[in-house]
Amino acid sequence: MEKTSASHLASTGNQIMAARDIKLLVVDIDGTIAGKSNNLSEAVKQAIFAVQARGIQVAIATGRMYRSALRFHREISSVLPLLAYQGAWIQDPATEKIHRHLAVSREIAHQLIDYFEQPQLRSLLSVHFYINDQLYVRELTRETQIYAERSGINPIPVGDLRKVLTNEPTKVLALCDDTNLINELLGNLRRQYTPAELYLTTSVATFFEATNASVNKGYAVRYLTEELLGLQRANVMTIGDNFNDVEMLEYAGLGVAMGNAPAKVQAIAQWVAPGVEEDGAAVAIEKFLL
């Protein structure tokens, strides 16, 4: 549902005025342009094609692996670099040029393995290490298999994850159906590591994610906007649905949260669209850009 408080109604005119400056639209995938079906609806695709026809460029910023996000990038006919792994990996699919790759240090990766393998945690977590756009796991758990099916990738089980740390991981992910445990992980590790050491977030309630401290979608969208396209934040509209989208919603001249987003994420957005299953991204695009 749209926000209908007096303050938001009063600001709608300003939002629409701001939308006139938009030259770049950046969208998240899961929970934003793709719902339970794991596919784009026709309404979302047509809305994106319509803004592209008006000269507004469209990019994807996602926590997904580059190879997993690529089909969505192609489906919306984006000509911009793809912002994957929360922006840790920025690559242009047309030229295959990697504009930016920021990884987690091997030292911290080893520390995270030690933490996840504590006796009280080891059997409860499915731990994923992403290296060179491949997914390495200790073993194939049920959670990993569900994740792999949705992502369209093949995990590589290696037993001891320390064996693959000859290279630095782009991202570290811990999955667990117990959302309280995920929140506990997030809180404990945020006390252990400062924001200058590690970026920690949740992309969905059951996904704990760790990346390089200089990584988040806000930094990635700023890099795309200012460094690669020569635009300003006032020229950007972003749409997202979860805590890993907060920074790009805050950066954009117009930040839109989905109706299925947590309340704290909705609170920082300038407008709240209907949920993903109601094609909320298309509604937002039509409201502000078409």
Q: Looking across the biggest beta sheet, what order are the strands in? A: 8-7-6-9-11-10
Q: In terms of per-residue confidence, which ranges show pLDDT below 50 for 5 or more consecutive residues?
A: 1-10
**Structural shape:** globular
**pLDDT averaged residue by residue:** 93
The value of Rg in angstroms is: 19 Å
The end-to-end distance, rounded to whole angstroms, is: 20 Å
Main sheet characteristics: 6 strands, mixed
Number of strands: 14
| Strand residue percentage | 15-25%
Bin the helical content: 25-40%
- How does the helix and strand content classify structurally? alpha/beta
Number of helices: 11
- Tell me the series of helices and strands, N- to C-terminal: HEHEHEEEHHEEHEEHEEHEHEHEH
Overall description:
The chain is of the alpha/beta class. It is built from eleven helices and 14 strands. The strands form three sheets. It has a six-stranded mixed sheet, covered by helices on one side. Strands 2-1-12-13-14 form a five-stranded parallel sheet. Helix 2 packs parallel to helix 11. Mean pLDDT is 93; it is low at 1-10.
